[in-house]
Amino acid sequence: MPLTLSRPELQRTANYIAGEWLRPVPGHALDVTDPATGALIAQVPDSNAADARAAVDAAHAAFAAWRKTPAKQRAQILKRWNDLVLSHQEDLGRLISREQGKPLAEGRGEVAYAASYIEWFAQEATRANGDVIPAPVPGRRMFALREPVGVVAAVTPWNFPAAMIARKIAPALAAGCTVVCKPAEDTPLTSLALVALAAEAGVPPGVLNIVTASRERTPEVVDAWLDDARVRKITFTGSTPVGKHLARRSADTLKKLSLELGGNAPFIVFEDADIEAAVDGLMIAKFRNGGQTCVCPNRVFVHEAVHDRFAALLVARVAALHVGPASDAASQIGPMINARAVEKIERHVQDAVARGARVLTGGTRLPALGANYFAPTVLAGTDATMACACEETFGPVAPLTTFANEAEVIAQANDTPFGLAAYFYSRDASRIWRVADALETGIVGVNEGALAAEAAPFGGVKDSGYGREGSVHGLDDYLHTKYVCQGQLD
Ligand code: SIN
After folding, report:
1. The pTM is what?
2. What is the pLDDT of residues 330-369, one digit of tens each?
């Protein structure tokens, strides 16, 4: 089915560098395919190191003027970008759903989510206040000023092709930084459309540059940025091994880093929980985007006293989920992003079953729908030895594990190198704060499964990375502090 947009020119298929759209060099194209069918949607440039360096040349040249552009003017441009994103919600939602596979309602929702970060940082741009510091000696005035770090390289994932790029680019531009970015190879079209709208909103040439690249060529592009001392910051969302590689490779030029990496979120249902609310919360947290989010619960711990009731309610809800392509308005779960994703999910389910877990619903691929579909699944009797408990499944699988007491479940929840999100359900006020304090994660949901918000700080601890996106802290990662001391005032 052709992709029909009310503004077809939003489907860009070129790099954008120094204000110019640059077509792919023949023989260097990257195919963008529909995960629902495998059909080709478009071809975009498969960029190389020279393209990456050209993007930095442009961003570096534009930095001097952009950092001096009054914050209010930067804020107005961001506000116009936000308005344009929202007024193209339907087109952008269709692009997201087509290249990423999520149901159209979620595609539209992601556009609103992306815009919320742009609007938020339009406001924050005007609040990058510094400090006037009481001088410890007479005759001096002391100041802490906040300055943009410089050229920022943003490397973004495929699971939220609009929201992840918006929550990196918007704070960078708000702070006065210029940007080079590379979207995930599976989902470049949404990012290119967002950049086109940013240009239309008045982001000057060179301030925002984007290059696309295949999985094979991405290391060449990113290495060019890592080696370039003009790039002062890398912001990355993706896997922990890649995040650690970026941290190691940034050492020679001491770049600032924000790393939003993998998770292994626990979801705990205590015996005093509102069980219906806990099922609602798990449905939202686990099955949003087909289970393909870093904050998806990966391990579900249910107290043994309420396990059977919880499992029965959950299975009824999961078995009723409608699986299908984004083009089917009834779809609640779309295809997984690609064949590798489905292979991993299948491996996790088979490993769990081989080690004694039981499939309560789902558990298999859905070949009648297409190669990338996997049935929403609930497993019972899972434990910490299974791959699904140690690795991020990134798919629609809820593995249930029973527990007997609070200390035991907190130990299990924290027994992972990761520390992005955790969720728990309880109606006991003292337990709520005890458990929230004890969980070793950057984000905790208490009696709530939908945590995402532009006003909240998003980020992890341990192997889930560092830095915070969104909230009043979100600008900090794009600023450094300069101390100015003025003497001879008496
Ligand atoms: C992610 O999966 O990395 C982001 C999820 C979110 O913003 O809620």
Report:
1. 0.97
2. 999 999 999 999 999 999 999 999 999 999 999 999 999 9
The dihedral formed by the CA atoms of 7, 10, 14 and 19, expressed in degrees to the nearest 10: 100
* C-alpha 217 chain-centroid distance: 22
Are β-strands 231-237 and 256-260 bridged in parallel, bridged antiparallel, or unpaired? parallel
Q: Ligand 1 pocket, 236 CB below 6 A?
A: no
Ligand 1 atom closest to Cα of residue 237: 3
Burial class (CB in 10 A: 0-12, 13-18, 19+), 321: middle
CB neighbours of residue 114 within 10 Å? 29
Distance 460 CA to ligand 1 centre (A): 11
Are 275 and 306 spatial neighbours (Cβ–Cβ below 8 Å)? yes
Q: Is 296 a catalytic residue?
A: no
**For the segment 88-124, what is each residue's pLDDT rounded down to a tens digit?**
999 999 999 999 999 999 999 999 999 999 999 999 9
User: What is the 3-state secondary structure of 397-425?
Assistant: EEEEEEECCHHHHHHHHHCCCEECEEEEE
**Nearest residue CA, atom 8 of ligand 1?**
452
| CA angle, residues 398, 404, 408, in degrees to nearest 5 | 85
Q: Position of tokens 């992890």?
A: 460
Residues in a beta bridge with 153: 180, 234
How far is CA 63 from its chain centroid?
26
φ and ψ at residue 305, rounded to 5 degrees: -70, -25
Ligand 1 center to 160 CA (angstroms): 7
How many CB atoms neighbour CB 343 within 10 A? 13
